[in-house]
Structures are given as structure tokens and as C-alpha cells.
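[job 4471] stage=fold_predict status=RUNNING
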Amino acid sequence: MGKAVITFGEIMLRLATPDRQRFTQVSELKVSFGGGEANVAVSLANFGIPVQYVTRLPQNDLGRAVIMELRKYDVGTDHILWGGDRLGIYFLETGSNARPSKVIYDRAHSAIAEIKPGMVDWDNVFGNAGWFHWTGITPAISEGAAGACLEAVKKAREKGLTVSCDLNFRKNLWKWGKSASEVMPALVENCDIILGNEEDAEKVFGIKPGKTDVSAGKVEGSQYEEVCRKLKEKFPGAGKIIITLRGSVSADHNTWSGILYNGSEFFHAPVYQITHIVDRVGGGDSFMGGLIYGLLSFPGDDQRALNFAVAASCLKHTIHGDFNLVSVTEVEQLMKGDASGRVVR
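[job 4471] inference complete, writing C-alpha cells
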């Protein structure tokens, strides 16, 4: 097996309304787990990539349930810390048609929010690693989490790991005293791979495309080439800049694609029409998992890596829960153009 991919962040208890009901209607909620970096880890493990997930969990039954869930999907838990009093929670109300989905966070004072620099032995964590992935969600949680993330990024860079980030701006999380635009540059400047959606670059760095209308499902990849160039200018050390392109026709129908810039060439993925969406939460994470797999598996073929990421994420929209539970074979089948959904016997 090759060197491991390490991901670091918060995993939460996910409580979702069943059957697209509203919070005000339900008498029960569906229980699962999810979180940006854990979602990436599950995707990678599912694709056969060795992966270790780093977080901090309360030493109670919920914390142990998280460990069991991750191990079920072959995600390494060797470096998870025990401590703190609670597991973060998020509540999901799945939208339908013109009604958007809603997320309510209950993650203040979670175990990972109370992490501090020095708690994780990054030398040990990165001992047999080749890649480190983090998202903008982690430094948004708390000052301590931001410090631990910066510590990890610098150590990973020092040890020669490939470092990737998903900008993942969440305005409702940046409440600990500093803004994303103040904190993120020092982290992102250490990254080789930078991923963002059609709005992240604007919300975090003030970099935006020309005229576009995401809400009308009109997202053109060519409009984001300038965003990629400006991100490259701001972070010249990054080898690849990737933007996911989601057009929201309705809660049930999105267009989905992506663009990759490697400093000299632009690569555009096919555009998928995703109708009858089952669950779009974790869509960006499934893209990132597919991208890391593609860059590791198809070195030098950025187009194929991008196409794999978009196809993998397209399939995630058909699966309940945060995790993308599809195989490499299924992704490659979609890449070849087979979207028939015929029964496989």
C-alpha cells in the first residue's frame, strides 16, 4: 500500500428529517454521522486509498460510535484524540423543489472546538503519510482549531507532503473573533491543491467572476477561469486550482461540473444534469475525495482526474447521508457515459 492520506477536522452527529419533512412536522429524526474531512476520508477508503482521520472525540458512547462508524468504512482512527465533553451536532431539513434545504448547527464547545495547538503529535501522524487534507470549516470552529490546523499545515509542508484544502466557507461558523479573510491566507499559502465552489473565492478572498447566475442554474466554467488565475496570483505556490460549478435549478435539480487550472492549462469537466436529488450534503466533499483519488491514480492526467471527481460527486447526490458510498468501477462507468441506471445483474 502507498503512503496514507491524512484528513483533519470535525465529525458530527447528523440528525435529518425523514421524507423531506420540515423540522416543525417531525416526531423522529434519522441518525448518522458526517463532516467535511471525514466525508473525504470515507470516499478515499472506499476507493482503496489508505487514509487516517484525525479529530478529537468525547470519551462516551457517541464518541465510540463514531470510531465504529469510521472503521466500518476502513478509515484509520489511530490518531484520534479522546477528550472534551460533547460531540457536535447538525440538524438537516431536506428541501424539495423550490424549498431549499436547511442546516442548523449545534457544535459550540464540542471536543474538537476545544482542541489546542500541541495536542496532536503531527510528527507521528505524518510518519507514513504522503498527503494532508483540511477544509476551511476547521479553522472556523474556534481559535484553538485554527491554531492546530495551521500547526498541521506547516508540519505537513515541512515534511514534504502534498497539502490540499477545500475553502468551504461557512459564514455561520466564523464567530470566535477573527474572519475567514484574516485567518485563511496563512493556511492556504501552504497548499499545493486549492478547491473552492463558485462562491468560496469571493466570500473568503473577494475574488469573483463576471456576470453569472447560480440561482438560475447558469454557471459557465469559462467565467471562472479568471477566478482561477487570480487565486494562482495570490497563492503562487499552489500547483492546481479547482472550482466546482453548481447551478441550482431547484432543490431537486442541479447542474454539476468543474474546472481545473494547473498554472498553464484549463481543464473543463462535462456538465451533469442531476435531477431527483436524494441528498446533496457532502457533494463537495465527494468531489474532493474523487479529485485526490484521481490525482494520485492518474498522475499527469489532470483532465481524467477532474472528470473522475465530477462523476464521483454526481453519484453522491443519489445516496442518503454524508458519505459517498460508490466504487471506482461505478464512477468509471458514469465517466464512459452510462447514466442509464439499469439494474446490474
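[job 4471] summary: The longest strand covers residues 240-248.
[job 4471] exit 0
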